[in-house]
Amino acid sequence: MSISANNPNRTSWLYVNKHSDFPIQNIPFGVFLTREDVITIGTRIGDTAIDLGALHQLGYFDGIPLTDDIFLQDTLNDFIADGRQTWRAVRNRIADIFDANNETLKNNTKHKEIVCFRLDEIEMQMPVLVGDYTDFYASKEHATNVGTMFRGEDNALMPNWLHLPVGYHGRSSSIITTHIPINRPQGQTLPEGASKPIFGPSKLVDFELEMAFITTDANDFGEPIPIEEAEDYIFGLVLFNDWSARDIQKWEYVPLGPFLGKSFASTISPWIVTLDALEPFRVESPKQNPKPLPYLRTKGKKSFDINLEAAIKPKGAKETVVSRTNFKYMYWNMAQQLTHHTSNGCPVNSGDMMGSGTISGPTEDSYGSMLELTWKGEKPIKMKDGTTRKFINDHDTVIMRAYCENDDVRIGFGQVKNELLPVFNPKKKK
Amino acid sequence: MSISANNPNRTSWLYVNKHSDFPIQNIPFGVFLTREDVITIGTRIGDTAIDLGALHQLGYFDGIPLTDDIFLQDTLNDFIADGRQTWRAVRNRIADIFDANNETLKNNTKHKEIVCFRLDEIEMQMPVLVGDYTDFYASKEHATNVGTMFRGEDNALMPNWLHLPVGYHGRSSSIITTHIPINRPQGQTLPEGASKPIFGPSKLVDFELEMAFITTDANDFGEPIPIEEAEDYIFGLVLFNDWSARDIQKWEYVPLGPFLGKSFASTISPWIVTLDALEPFRVESPKQNPKPLPYLRTKGKKSFDINLEAAIKPKGAKETVVSRTNFKYMYWNMAQQLTHHTSNGCPVNSGDMMGSGTISGPTEDSYGSMLELTWKGEKPIKMKDGTTRKFINDHDTVIMRAYCENDDVRIGFGQVKNELLPVFNPKKKK
Q: Both B110 and B139 in a single domain?
C-alpha cells in the first residue's frame, strides 16, 4: 500500500500555519480527553484535534477492517497491534477526509462539530500503556562524554559499546506525558568526600534529550526478530525526556545500573509521529567501525534527520534553548536496537517503548544533558534572565521540541514540557 | 479484621494429604483454564482447584463488597487492587466454606461439580499481568560470592551495598509460569581470551533461586511510601526463577546492568501465597550493620522462614536437589525494598512484581545459583544419574520448591518447573 498521506502537494481545508509541526502530511496519533470529558483516540492537523472515535462512528473509515471500538479506548495499544497495513490505511483515509479537494466532511457542519476540537478544549493523555520500557545508550558522543567524565578519556567507551547497542530496562509506571509537574526526587547520595551516604533531595536533577519508538506486537516468546524485519514493528516515535537525578544515580548504579536516579519520572510528547510520516527524512547512519556482527548489519538509510532542542524556562521568565542536536547522530539505529533486544527471544509487545538514550552531537552546544552541557557543573550555562544553571532548579520548566524539515514539508513532534516542583510534601497533598 | 483463615486447628472436608503445601490454612490465589476452556480466578486446597468465579456467581461471597466479575478475569490485578481488607475477607470466607464443620457446599453435589476441579483438569496461567518487574540483590551471601568471583574478596561488596537494597528494573514481558519450556538464548559473548565478541547460543545458562512479592496499588506518582506502611501493599509471594545467561550477562552488563542475559525468561510458581498466610512464619531479619538510614529502619519481624530448594532433572532421569536455602537469609527485607523503591516517588501498581535476588545461605550447599554452587564451573555438581553439571544443559528441567513449616501447619508454594530446550529453530516453529 502506498503512503498517499505523505503526498507533499496536498493541502487541507483545515487551517494550518506554515510553521506548524502538524500539516496534513503528519497525521500523528494520540489520546485525549474531549470537552465532554470522554477519552478518545485522535489525530491533529494544524491546531485542530480530530476525534477518530467519532469519525469512525460516523462511517468515515468504512471499508477499512477496524473493530467498532478501536478508537474508543484509553490507549492506542489495540490500534497499534493491528499492524502497519491498518495504520497506513487509516492515515491515508484521514488525509483524504481533510484534503482541500474533499468537501464531504468540510461541508457537514454537524459532523464537523462532533469531530473537530480546538486544542484548548482537549487534554492530552498518555498515548499508550507502556508494558515494558527499555532505554538504550546509543549516542557515541554521549557515551564518550559521560565515560570521559567518570573514567577518563582512555576508558571512555566500554569494550562492548562498539559491538552492541547497550541498553537497560527502565520503569514503565513513571512515564507520563507533557504538562504534568514532577517533584524533585529524594534519595540516597554520597556527598563529595563523605564516607557515609545521606538521604534527602537530589541536588543534581537533569534532563536527557531523547527520542523513543513505540512498537507493535513483534514476536512470540523465544523468537528473535531478523534485522530485515525490525522496522516493520515500529509504529512511531515521540520525544522523550529521561529525567535523571545524577547524585542518586552515581551512588546506586554500580553494579546493576540506573534505578531510582531515573525512575521518578520520564516524560514523552503526546502525539506519536508514525514511521510512515518520517519516510521523507531517512538518512544514512554514522559509519560503524568495527562492522557489526551479521545479526546487526543493516542496509540503506535507517536513521532519520530529526532536529531536536531542549530549553529551560525559569518561573516567570523567558525560556533559554540550551541544546540543539539531531536524532541522526545516533550510532546504533532503531532496527539494530529492536533486533538486539529480541536476539535472546525476549518478546516485544504493542505499546512497548524504547528510548534512544541521550542524543548528543559533536559540538558542545549539541549535548543532550546538563551533565554534558555544563561538564558536571564546571561550566554553568547563562540564561536569558541573567541567572545561571548547572542543573535544573525547582520551578524550572524543561521543554523539548523536535521536527523534520525539507523543501516540501515540515513534520514535527510538538513538545514535551514539564515543570520541576520542590520535593513532595505529604502535608500539602493535593 | 482477624485472619480466621489461619486457624491452625481447622480442617477441611476436602481431602488434604498431610505433606500437602495447600492445607486449608494456605488458600493461595491463582488463575487457571478450566476443563471448559474458561479462564477463572481460583484457589487450591489439597489437590482440588476451586473456581472462585463460580463460587461468587453461586452467592458464596454474599456480604463481601466485590464486583460481579472480579474473579471472571484473566489476571488477579483487579482483585489485588481491592486491598487487604477484601483479600482477608475472601480468604476467611473460603476457609469457612471448606471447613469440615460446614456442610452447605459439601452437601451440594451440583454446586461442587461446578466449583471443584481435579488438578489434571486445569491449566495454570500467569496469575497477574506484571506492569513493572524489579529485581533486588538483597542476599549478602550471594552478593559477596559473586563479588568475590568477579572482583576479588577485598572488593566483593560495593560501597553502596550495606546502605541500600540494590535493585534494577527487569523485563516484564518474559515472565512466564511453570511448565512452559524455554529456549536456550542466543547472544553476544566474549570468549575467554578473545578480543572480539561472537554471536551464538549461550554456553552458561543458569538458574537463580528467588522469591518475588506482588504488590497492590501502593502510591500515587511522586509520593513515597513510609516504611511503617510498606507491608500493607504486599499481596503475596511466589517462587521466582530468574534464569540467567552468564556469558551474555558478563559481556553486556557494564555500565548499565543486566539486560539480555536475563530477559529471555523468568519463571514463577502459579499460586500466590498471601502475606496473611505467611504470618505464623515471621522471623527477625539478619542484623544490619551499619544501621540503615532512618527511612529504611524496620522494627519487629519483617522476614519469613521459608525453606527453599532447587533441583535439576535431566531428561529421562531422576532429579537431583542441588541447593537448599531459606528466604530468611535475606539481608534487606521486603518492606525496606518497597520503601526504597518508592523513596523517589516512583509509583507501584497492582500486579507489580519484585524479586528478592538470588537467595544464598551461609553454606556451600545453600547457594542459590549454579554460578555459586559450582564456583564459576570450577567444581561441577555430581548428579544422581552419574552425569555432572556446571550449568544447565539442554533438556534439563529446573524445579524450585518452597514451604514453611511449624508444629501446627505447613504452608507451601508448590513448585515452578521449566525445561530448557535447545536454541530456537525458526524452521521448526510450532
A: no
Least CA distance to B176: which residue of chain A?
Answer: A221
Number of H helices, E strands in chain A: 8, 26
A interface mutation test: which of B77, B179, B259 has the most A CBs within 10 A? Answer: B259
Which among B19, B111, B142, B163 is annotated as catalytic? B142
B429 pLDDT more than 80: no
What the block records as the C-alpha cell of B162 is: 550495606
**How many CB atoms lie under 10 A from the CB of residue A111?**
17
* A416-430, B21-35, B232-246, B343-357: least confidently modelled range: A416-430
DSSP string for A140-202: HHHHHHHHHHHH-GGGSS-TTTTTS--EEEE-STTEEETT--EEPPEEEE--TT-SS-EEEE-
Q: How much is the pLDDT for B360?
A: 97
By Cβ distance, the residue of B169, B187, B343 closest to A344 is B187
What is the DSSP secondary structure assignment for residue B427, as one 8-state letter? G
pLDDT at A429: 63
Question: Cβ of A263 and B344 within 8 Å?
Answer: yes
Quote the pLDDT of residue B108: 98
% of chain A at pLDDT higher than 90: 97
Range of the domain at A73: 4-124
**Residue A287 among known ligand-binding residues:** no
Q: Is A142 a catalytic residue?
A: yes
Q: Are residues A312 and A364 in the same domain?
A: yes
User: Residues B226-253: what's their mean pLDDT?
Assistant: 98
User: In Å, what is the CA distance from A302 to each residue of A231, A331, B274?
Assistant: 9, 11, 49
What was the pLDDT predicted at A308?
A: 98
B94: phi then psi, degrees, rounded to nearest 5: -60, -40
- Report yes or no: A315 and A395 within 8 Å, Cβ to Cβ: yes
Pairing of β A133-136 and β A167-170: antiparallel
Nearest to A129 by CA among A179, A82, A65, A177: A177
Residues A142, A178 within the same domain: yes
DSSP B197-265: -EEEE-S-EE-BEEEEEEE-----TT-PPPGGGGGGGEEEEEEEE--EEHHHHHHH-TTT---TTTTT-
pTM above 0.90, yes or no: yes
How many Cβ pairs closer than 8 A exist between chain A and B?
204
Query: How far away is chain A from the Cα of B173, in angstroms, using its nearest Cα?
Result: 6
**CATH number for position B59:** 2.30.30.230
Among B176, B172, B147, which residue's Cα sits nearest to residue B162? B147
Answer yes or no: do B198 and B341 share one domain. yes
Contact B130, A224 (CB under 8 A): no
How many domains does chain A divide into? 2
Provide, for chain A, the percentages of residues in helix, strand and coil under a 3-state DSSP scheme, each rounded to the nearest 5. Answer: 20, 25, 50
The cell for B376 is: 564459576
Chain B residues with CB-CB distance to A196 below 8 A: 163, 290
**Per-residue cell: A24:** 496534513
Q: For residue A81, which of A216, A275, A215, A218 has the smallest C-alpha distance?
A: A216
pLDDT score at A35: 85
Containing A82, the helix (H) or strand (E) segment is: none
How close is the nearest chain A Cα to the Cα of B283, in Å? Answer: 28
Tell me the CA distances in angstroms from A416 to A305, A312, A325, one per residue in order: 19, 12, 16
The three three-digit cell numbers of residue A125, written as one number: 493523555
B175 in Cβ contact with B353 (< 8 Å): yes
Among the options A19, A56, A142, A395, which is catalytic? A142
Say yes or no for a CB contact (<8 Å) between B171 and A346.
Answer: yes
Residue found by looking up cell 570521559 in the block: A148
Last residue of a domain, one of B99, B124, B149: B124
Q: Are A326 and A284 in contact (CB under 8 A)?
A: no
Q: What is the pLDDT of residues A43-102, one digit of tens each?
A: 999 999 999 999 999 999 999 999 999 999 999 999 999 999 999 999 999 999 999 999
